[in-house]
# Entry
Amino acid sequence: TEIKTTAFYGSGISAVNFAEDAAIDILEATQYYVTNNLGASQPVTGGMFMGCNYLETIEIPESVLMVSDYAFKGWTGLKRLEIPESVKYISATGLFYGCSRLEYVSVPSSLKVIPDHMFNGCSSLTDFDFAGGYTSIGTNAFNGCASLETIDLEGVREFGNGAFSGAGFVSIRIPDGMTEIPYELFCGCTKLKDIDFNQTEII
# Structure
């Protein structure tokens, strides 16, 4: 069973309960197309709980094996989510895009990177847990995460453009082995006072 794009879009639901033996294996968001004022068709991606202001969390059943890109995009009521280890495939681009009330999330060890736009617009995010660690952080991954004051970059070898733009960091340490600081990495980080390059050799 699949739960598809915008399945509960804009609804007033405040709770979703899945049976322990729920036969749900995919949580998905896909693109649909709208026509703009110039008559051009353009793609829009919406999450299954997009616009659900009163739904603060769900318990993802262990039957779920895959979570797709943008699956939770625009879930405006989301505050906390734990994705279980049973999820073996998680693509996660834009996964929590625009979840402005999200405070905490944990993801399984199957995800080894923080992809593009994963937390873009998550202005209330204060903490997250990656069970297996992460080696790269994608473009605009934490754009606008104004409440995120600290992040562990140990083991990270690559940053995307604007990865931390608008984040709430006060200080940050660039990990060893980095050879490039990409465009707009800390653009708009008005609280940032100290950057430690340690022994990093920037070319």
